[in-house]
Amino acid sequence: MLYNVWGSVGSAMSVRRPVRSPLPDDERENSDPESDAHHYYIPTKYDMFDLRRSRILPEKLFKVIIIGDPTVGKTSFIQRYVQNSFTKEYKGTVGVDFALKVVHWYDSQVVKLQLWDIAGQERFTWMTRVYYKDTHGCVIMFDLTNKNSFENTLKWKKDLDGKCTLSDGSPVPCMLLANKCDLQDRKVHQADIESFHKENNFIGWTETSAKEGLMVNDSMKFLIEVMMQHEGVNSTINHKKSSLQLVNQEEKKRRNCIC
Amino acid sequence: MSDDLPSTYDVIILGTGMVESIVAAAVARTGKKVLHLDPNTYYGQLWATLSLDSFELWAKTGTSNTKTLKGEDSFKSLSDKALKYYETQDERDCISDLTFNWNIVEDIPESEEEPKEENASGNEYSIKKIRDVSRKFNIDLAPKLLFAKGPMVEILIKSQVSKYVEFLNVNNILIYIDDAIERVPCSKSDVFSSKSVNVVDKRLLMKVLTSIQSYTEESPFFQEYENKTFLDYLKANLPEKFANFILYSIAAGDQNTPCLEGVQKAKKFLSCLGYYGNSPFLWPLYGSSELLQGFCRQCAVFSGIYCLNREVEAIAVEGDKYYGCASNGILLQSEHLVVSNSLLPQQFRGTGPSVKRAVLITDKSIFPEGKEGVSLLQYPTDDSAATILELSGNTCSVPKGLFIVQIVGNCLEEAIKNLFSEGGDDSKPKILYSLRFTLHQMECTGKLPENIHACPGPDFATDFDAEIRKAEEIFKKICPEEEFFAPLPPEPEPPSDEPDSPEEATNDA
Ligand SMILES: Nc1nc2c(ncn2[C@@H]2O[C@H](COP(=O)(O)OP(=O)(O)OP(=O)(O)O)[C@@H](O)[C@H]2O)c(=O)[nH]1
Ligand SMILES: [Mg+2]
pTM for the whole thing? Predict the structure, then answer.
């Protein structure tokens, strides 16, 4: 399996030796988008590295949804990732579907991430299909100090897979995050998470702490990498949409005038 | 299930039907605190869109009302106040005479599959094979279309809920006439370019379409038909075939439709042409319930709390005012209650009109020469008409190669008999699966406390006009000062951070 390298990282706390990539060392260092990051994951194709020589790449937009039981730390995780901050009472922005994070990926590629939070919606694992729709990647989160939230991740995964797939019909790549690893009072064993994530086709898992900012960037980096790979496969098929999106006719006219 | 729900709200909404969901979004946008509950594990109640598995389960549970009343005394301990408790009822009461059956073999053993290949189409399907792709089905319990210029489209755009939903044009408008299916020329340009209409008829048709389009309240043109039917008017001006085209397909009427009503409906149809292709109707990809899910998502984005699989056992009333909802051993309190008619306590619920419905899975289109997509067929009979909606693979409602057929109308058996085959006749689409039931509309009959707002379930109209009107009416009662879906202030640019280490970007520039 492709993603096991990272999937078996196991503990966020243990410092991992970077996995060597087949690129020359100096080149890899330059291309590293985040200085603190390690390569936990080896892409099999290196289109990205080749493409970057052509300099101007169209920016990529990915929709990432974050699901899991109440209070596991989904909103805190997004806040940490997007604003690099943590406040105990942060509740997300009312009236906005997603937070936006712009990542410079290997110098030449701009990746925009829409991070969709479940916004008070769906306390108990039955989401609207419109929330899942057109998603490129998914984070399913549980709280290490709450065993029930771990068990429910399977319900979340089933709800997602039942309502949504990638455009080529394959399951949405799904990463399992064990949050609040800064706390002492753990209720879930690493070995259980390890076997659970394999059995249920998660692309990988790691412990995180939104509070301390542990493995927040690294985990998202891993997910981006997987999504970039899928994107490479899917864009060759080039799905042309024949569906209509409703627009305000007046506004459309106005916009056309300006151009 | 843990009970960590807050106990007070501005508005509690019970049921995730279309009207309830529109109200939920509208009210939440004004800043009110909303709790939205549904006894089912899916959205939409009788408006739901279900995968094949869930659909079959829904059918199997059928009309069985599982609700057992507990008696008022069992709620007395919830509060010290002098409250009267009214127990809610089961939406299953809206369904009767439900039957379903598969018309294909259970399974095809692997080894037999090869030699059977040369058999005619339809034979290669087995129940197992179709169930294996259950998730590729999105079957509507109450499919409805949108008028391209109708109130639903207007509200979707105004609310920006439109961003959650994509649409297809209903690309085949058809009618069953003289034992055959024909395409209806909808617009004047259709008539103009139609090869099946001769020159004389073209002129007559154009003239009628023009007078319908230019109709206003004051126009004297139709006055002599004031007390006559639309059909009277049409027959006086057109050959019978074209009169039927306009009556059934364009005005969605029947023999008894009064002239002015028919003119207004036909005018509306014609005024919706040309906005999204050459058809007045839109169909939501993945099914009608995408719309209500879009409104629910918006409510959630405005801090509404959602809890499915959650029942309200009783509605508590204090004096002549609604007080709260007894649910799962606690009392949830709110200023207003919005509730689906189908769940109303028996003191307030009555049974209204009903209609027959059928859902078929077939192996061929009723109109193979048409464009792939969504077809709307009117099937008039001597005393009423059936409306038939056919969805193909590109609607995301059914796997490629199969079709979902939704039929509404009391004469549906006749339509099914003439349009489909149960096997044998290869010229017609074969029915692989069929489900039939009668859908009853529930009505609010008693006098509800002023702060309870009851919402109708699916009616039998093709569009959502009535639902939007009802939602706005309820909204005005809860928020009398506010505009219905007032435009939002422009979205603040979401925080878009530069990369954590900006020097990265300029590294080798
Ligand atoms: N110790 C610790 N606390 C955390 C961490 N992440 C979140 N929390 C706390 O957990 C509580 C819930 O966090 P939220 O981010 O609101 O959780 P959520 O998953 O968004 O919850 P809902 O929006 O209710 O579904 C808050 O009090 C956070 O401060 C973490 O990594 N460590
Ligand atoms: Mg949250």
Answer: 0.87
